[in-house]
Structure formats: structure tokens, C-alpha cells
Amino acid sequence: xxxxxxxxxxxxxxxxxxxxxxxxxxxxxxxxxxxxxxxxxxxxxxxxxxxxxxxxxxxxxxxxxxxxxxxxxxxxxxxxxxxxxxxxxxxxxxxxxxxxxxxxxxxxxxxxxxxxxxxxxxxxxxxxxxxxxxxxxxxxxxxxxxxxxxxxxxxxxxxxxxxxxxxxxxxxxxxxxxxxxxxxxxxxxxxxxxxxxxxxxxxxxxxxxxxxxxxxxxxxxxxxxxxxxxxxxxxxxxxxxxxxxxxxxxxxxxxxxxxxxxxxxxxxxxxxxxxxxxxxxxxxxxxxxxxxxxxxxxxxxxxxxxxxxxxxxxxxxxxxxxxxxxxxxxxxxxxxxxxxxxxxxxxxxxxxxxxxxxxxxxxxxxxxxxxxxxxxxxxxxxxxxxxxxxxxxxxxxxxxxxxxxxxxxxxxxxxxxxxxxxxxxxxxxxxxxxxxxxxxxxxxxxxxxxxxxxxxxxxxxxxxxxxxxxxxxxxxxxxxxxxxxxxxxxxxxxxxxxxxxxxxxxxxxxxxxxxxxxxxxxxxxxxxxxxxxxxxxxxxxxxxxxxxxxxxxxx
Length: 555
What we know:
The chain is 46% helix and 12% strand. It has helices spanning 36-42, 54-69, 79-86, 109-129, 132-142, 149-154, 165-172, 183-189, 191-202, 212-217, 220-229, 239-244, 247-255, 268-277, 292-307, 318-330, 345-357, 373-380, 399-402, 409-419, 437-451, 477-490, 502-514, 528-539, and strands at 5-11, 18-25, 30-32, 48-51, 75-78, 282-285, 310-314, 336-338, 362-365, 384-389, 428-432, 456-459, 495-498, 519-522, 545-548.
């Protein structure tokens, strides 16, 4: 190993005063003294100095000391920038503080210097393991940058510059980026961002997203990723775009279906999916049980696969959110979570962490959650590619009474867009089974007034062939219960009995249980644990009959 010394300065946050200095040479010789004069003696004729975030932090204090002493400043190696490039699967890149038994105990700069040295050794090994072409691409992009130039000099890596860097990138990532990507522009104007983007693509099957440190310091990385992977071209020779934006291929990949559902001969589901893939805002009126969920889940999963995009699904009922998440998990689609009141604190913390880390493509929340600062922080930190509003008739038919927070959705989306710079509108998809024209018009008017959105509309017919209705006249509660018993006895299948009041739900369920039926209860006033248990028992066929209010969902 060449001679290199890693340095760490401890500085007070308020006064920016250096209170401790530590350093470690490559032969493991330590230095620990709050004296710049003695540090410079320790660094005498060292050709390289390194540190974790030394460029943005320690160097601002060290540089004046070198100038004051008339010393030549050694070449700089920053392990933080290298870690983000060479270990892209990691979301966090700060040094571990496992030597600290107490959080408020001061950092030990010698220990941190040694950790940086050990990390640097790992980074050299990681670079050595890279494909030879990828190493040359990184060198072509980064060799003359402040962030990486010292590293290539230290490891004596100086191959001939590739004659056609754009062509080499396309060759190396032929199945992973669009062949029409503006690589020449990105190479010239955003070489570091492009390198980080390629690094992420190289480990794209990892469960993590773009590292938070990279997003903070190089916010254009997300934009670069969009240019590489989320801007479809019309070139038939582009293998990436032919697959990444193909709804039928996505349907087969994620859900194992060969074709989309049709409505009275019309391929509305496929057309709605394709509109979403193309970035359109849309309003879909599809029948209950008619494939609404897949229509918004598929574009969301495809976007997650392309750029780790997050689709936010707003649904009024916790039971429906849980049901949809559980169904996706059963199909081994794990990049989806819900954050709602049915989760215990541990489950909620884990869901929040997964969204933050970028391993989630679909997030289900209630409209009330949009007023949560935690949810707002999560969405500001992610690339939100679409809002999906399920049960969108709440805006019109009974939104004022049932979910007043539906009327806040447009304000929240506008606020989020402003926090993200306001340059790019976030598309919206609305889904409902209510086909009344005045309801549809109310939804359209709301989003045009709030966000200047004009929806592309997909409406199936109003006929519901999968539903049958019967009305029975009864004289009293006993006659009503007797009829209910007869219907249940005549149909050997799971049943949901809807009632209007929570008290009635408990009363009817108890009566059915006393008569030997396997029955459970679900309503909004139940404890979270009991609601979850009751819903799971019904889904797992542990109980045959669910007596519920509309909180259980009508689908």
C-alpha cells in the first residue's frame, strides 16, 4: 500500500471550532492531539490524505493550515464518494459508530480515521472486482474530478481514454438503458451523476433505492436516471424500451397473466394501463371486482422496476388496503406496503423504513395520512411517480361526510410538487365503480381546479353481470334474522352480512354464533388488533361469516 494518512477532525456544531484531531497512517501509526502544528509534522511529505467526507468537511479546516505553513497539500481521497459509487446497494454510507456505548459520548477521531482506512481498503478491492469495461467507463467519467481523481492516481489506474465513451456505455448496459439516451450531454455536463446512475443500474435488483447521501448532494441523479431508463424512445431496435414500457410483458412478468381483461369486448384495462405507462392522468370507471387494482398496480410496479419510482395509493378503508397488500405478497410481489392504523408500532416503523430505503414501489395510505408530517417527509424523500385515488367517488357522492380529507388531496399534491421544485407535475389516476355522469364530472372539476389536470377517461358499461340483487320484505327483526339464517343455510360458501351500525354487527354475529355458525365481526370502532385478527380469520377460512359495517369494504 502506498503511503497515505487518514485524518478526522471533531468540530463543534455551534461555533465550528476544532476540538479534537485524529489521524492514522497506512502502517496503522496513530496521531491524537488537538494541534494543527503537530498534525502537519505527522503528515510531513505524505503524498495522500484521506477521510470520510473530507472534501466537504475536514479540508475546509486543513487547507488554510497547509497554506499558512507553506506546505504542499497532499492529494485528497474521500471514502464517502467512493463508498456510494462502489457499494450502491447500501442506502446509508456514514461510518459506523459501534465503538460508542453512549450516543452522547464524543466521537474518537483516531477510531474514525482507522475506519476510513479500513473502508478504503475494501473500496480498492471492490473496484478491482469490477468488470474491466465498467472500470474504464468510471475512469473516463471521473478521472479528472476532485471527488475521484486522487483515487485513480493512488491505485495507478490510468488506461487510455475510451474513444467512444457513449458507445462503450451503451455496449455495457445494452439491456438496461435506452439506446437514445442523451449520453453525450450527460458525459459532458453530469459525469459524476451519470457514474452514480450507472452504478445503481449495475445493482438494480438490489432492494434499496438511490442512497440518501447521493440524492442530497447530487439531486440530478434522479433526473439522469429518468433520461436513461424512463424516457421511452420509438426506436424498434431499443431492446430496453421494448420491454420496460410494454404493458403485456409487465402483466406476464408480475402477475403471470397472458392478456388483459376486457369489458363488453373493449380492451379498456389495457388502454388505461398504457395511458399510465405513458405518464397520462386518467379516470377509470370499472366495475367492482373488475380488475381495477391491477390497472394501477401494474404501471406502479413497472415504474418501480425502471427507476425505483413510488406510487402512492390513497384508499378510504384500512381493510381494503390490507387485503390488497396481502394478495400481492401472496403472489411474491413484496415491494408494496401500507401505513395505517391497523399496524402496531413495530410494523409501522418497518413499513416507514422500507419506503425510506426505496425497496417499496407502492404505498397504500388513507387520505387522513396526508396530514402526517412523517408521511410528508417520506414522500419528499422519494421519487413519487403517481398518485392513485381509489374510491374516487368520495369527492362527490359522500366525500364531504365520509372522508372530508379527500378534499385535501389536491392541496397536498400541489404542496409536494412545490417542495420538489415545482418543475414536474405528478400524474394522478382516479378509480371508481360509480358510473354516474355527475359524479365523474365532479371528480374532473375538482382536479382541474386544484391541479389543472385534464383526465383521460375510461368508462365501462354500467351493467354488473357479476352482481345479483334480491329484496325481501320482512315485518320485524326476528323475521329478518330468520330469513338471514335461511339464506346462509342455503348457500354453502363464505358470506358477508352488512349492517349499518356497529352495535348491530356485534348483536347479529353473537346470535349466529349461538346458533352454531362460524361468525366474526368487523367495524370501525374495534381495536386494531381485533380488526386485523377478524379479517385474517375470514380470509384464511377460519370463520365463514363476517358481520360488518361498510368499514370492511363493499368489494
